[in-house]
Amino acid sequence: MKRPAGPGSQKGQRGAALLTAMVIVTLVATLAASMVWQQWRAVQVEAAERSRAQSYWVLGGALDWARLILKEDQKGDNRSGNQYDHLGEPWAVPLAEARLSSFLAADKDASTDDGPEAFLSGVIFDAQARYNLRNLIDPSGKPQPEELQTLQLLCEYVGVSPTVAQLIAQGMGEAVRYTSGASGTNETTAPLLPTSMDQLSWLGVDASSVAKLRPYVTLLPQPSPVNLNTASKEVIAAVIPGLNLAIADRLVQTRQRQPFKQLGDVQTLLATPGQTLNSQRVDVRSRYFEVRGKLRLDDRIVEERSLVERMSSEVIALRRERIASVESAGGKP
After folding, report:
1. Number of helical (H) and strand (E) elements in the chain, helices listed first
2. pLDDT in tens, 139-178
3. Interatomic CA distance for residues 64 and 54, integer angstroms
């Protein structure tokens, strides 16, 4: 015959039941919180992906805008017979930051009430306003003495050691020889051929030198002349033999009043009588341009840089790369 449970035993059973209930409630709450967090995280990821996709879609429109501007400028030059490019043309005018809804408002079928606040800006640069490092090396990978001297002078003008020019020429020569399969190249030590300024580090160039050279040099797919209508005085002084910064600055001031229509206009202003300019190294026209678009969408800033080539009848994009994608902590960029 069982002895009836005493008051102490009943209290123990109630305590165990209460403890079990608390454990179950804790587990349920933990699982529920985990499910809510996962759902919130999935929503955040989806929103970020949607924002990124929208940003690149809009920046693609900015690139189309630049291509249209350059194409129309080419048509206008062909009609007028002005075969030269300068900083007074429409393509050189930046697109100031503007709210996208102001553009969409022109379309009666487009609703802007429920759309995100987006701001777009852009600018077109003449890529041939800078010295093209592709000029340093011939197709066989041999450095060109005249071009190497140009880069050394440019390094001096911008506060970079001239040894950096030799380092770039040597590294690019090795990369070109290896790419072409020339004999005698070492597969383990030959660097890759850089295609952008950031990749000059592959050749052993330090970040400080790259930052100082960036406004004055570029890397284009093919060798190209410098446009004397858009280049800085440092680039002009380096690329024209016998020129100094004072005369180069005078050329810059002259073109601000009247752009150079042909190389003969420049030759008349040079200090050396009878000096002939090499049209392979300098020109007054450009075919390569850099397009930079910037989109501010909610709390995210996305920038894109594109290299385009203007042909006789079309403008094609050769390279597109994202510069930055920054999310501000305070909700305002």
Report:
1. 8, 9
2. 888 999 999 999 999 999 999 999 999 999 999 999 888 8
3. 15
Could you count the other beta carbons within 10 Å of the beta carbon of residue 111?
Answer: 11
Q: Sketch out the chain's domains with CATH numbers.
A: 57-128+287-327 (3.30.1300.30), 131-214 (no CATH)
Cα–Cα distance between 303 and 326 in angstroms, integer? 9
Query: Cα(219)–Cα(329) distance, rounded to whole angstroms?
Result: 35
The percentage of residues in the chain with a pLDDT greater than 70, rounded to a whole number, is 80
Partnered with residue 297 across adjacent β-strands are: 118, 300
C-alpha span between 130 and 239 (Å, rounded):
10
From CA 160, how far away is CA 146, in angstroms rounded? 19
Residue type, 289: F
pTM reported for the whole predicted model: 0.78
- 49 in Cβ contact with 303 (< 8 Å): no
Question: For residues 307 and 287, is the Cβ–Cβ distance under 8 A?
Answer: no
Q: d(Cα 129, Cα 152) in Å, to the nearest integer?
A: 18
